[in-house]
Amino acid sequence: MPITKKSRRRSDLFESRFRDGSSVNFPLRQYLRCREDFTSGLVHLALLGVFCLTLVGFGRTINHLFQVHGSDLHWIYRVSVLVVIAVAVLGVIRRIWMKIQNLRELRKAMAGFRSDFRNLDL
Known about the structure:
- The chain is built from 2 helices and no strands.
- It is mainly α.
């Protein structure tokens, strides 16, 4: 593949530092990569938790609004809105659970890479 449109010279393949395991410090690089994924996963988990709490608070507010101002409305409106919010909360809780499972797997992988790196003869 040419470097630019006018260039006749072809570019070499990009050397990825994660492509092969031939380097001596490959387990260390993989450990650092997993650690970065783990920290970003923790931030994502915290944001999901805040979002879940926000949805619960929104549901309580909607329920209160229906109690105060919606006494002349049919009960099915209130129930249907609360069911939609409950489904959204359950979806977020499922995502939180899946993120926790993912973080557990990352911790196991990090422990394996850490032990591999410590056992290397440098």
